[in-house]
From TrEMBL:
Protein name, UniProt field: ATP synthase subunit b, chloroplastic
This protein's UniProt keywords: ATP synthesis, CF(0), Chloroplast, Coiled coil, Hydrogen ion transport, Ion transport, Membrane, Plastid, Thylakoid, Transmembrane, Transmembrane helix, Transport
Quaternary structure and partners: F-type ATPases have 2 components, F(1) - the catalytic core - and F(0) - the membrane proton channel. F(1) has five subunits: alpha(3), beta(3), gamma(1), delta(1), epsilon(1). F(0) has four main subunits: a(1), b(1), b'(1) and c(10-14). The alpha and beta chains form an alternating ring which encloses part of the gamma chain. F(1) is attached to F(0) by a central stalk formed by the gamma and epsilon chains, while a peripheral stalk is formed by the delta, b and b' chains.
Gene: atpF
Miscellaneous information on this protein: In plastids the F-type ATPase is also known as CF(1)CF(0).
One Pfam family this sequence matches: ATP-synt_B
Native source species: Meniocus linifolius
Keyword Coiled coil: yes
Coiled-coil ranges per UniProt: 64-98
């Protein structure tokens, strides 16, 4: 590096041959060259740079606008979802309340139906008991009557003679005939 700097310094000590010469001061020449390059870039590149920056700015604005539109759409969808959720929650609460009411109503209906069925069974049981009692009483009466009749027939047969027996039968037949005429 030192050799390179020495060679430039050596060129700087060369005597000038005329009006044209090289400026061997590196720092001075670099600053001049850079300012010329920057000046040319600014003069000619200003439009290009402005166009690039404007396009970049427009892309950023479009991206922001698209993001805002998407955000608004997402907010609207969120509000719609919240509205649907509230509606579904309300309906679920109504179904729950109605379900409990329906369950209670069905339970009460079942209890009432069971009570009515038990009442009917109790009535059928009582009617059956009364019917069986009447039937048993009628059977007992019939047997008592048959036994009394057999006893009376046996007593009459032993006490009555054939002639008395025929007169009694004729009298009874006459009584039955009279009763039959009265009932007709």
């Amino acid at each position: 590096m030192k050799n390179l700097t020495d060679s430039f310094v050596y060129l700087g000590h060369l005597p000038s041959a005329g009006s044209f010469g090289f400026n061997t001061d590196i720092l001075a020449t670099n600053l001049i060259n850079l300012s010329v390059v920057f000046g040319v870039l600014i003069f000619f590149g200003k439009g290009v740079l402005n166009d690039l920056l404007d396009k970049r700015k427009q892309r950023i604005l479009n991206t922001i606008q698209n993001s805002e539109e998407l955000r608004e759409g997402a907010i609207q969808q969120l509000e719609n979802a919240r509205t649907r959720l509230r509606k579904v929650e309300t309906e679920a609460e109504q179904f729950r309340v109605n379900g409990y009411s329906e369950i209670e109503r069905e339970k009460l209906n079942l209890i009432n139906a069971t009570y009515r069925t038990l009442k009917q069974l109790e009535n059928y049981k009582n009617e059956t008991i009364i019917f069986e009692q009447q039937r048993t009483i009628n059977q007992v009466r019939e047997r008592v009557f048959q036994q009394a009749l057999q006893g009376a027939i046996g007593t009459l047969n032993s006490c009555l003679s054939n002639e008395l027996h025929l007169r009694t039968i004729n009298a009874n037949i006459g009584m039955f005939g009279t009763m039959k005429e009265i009932t007709d």
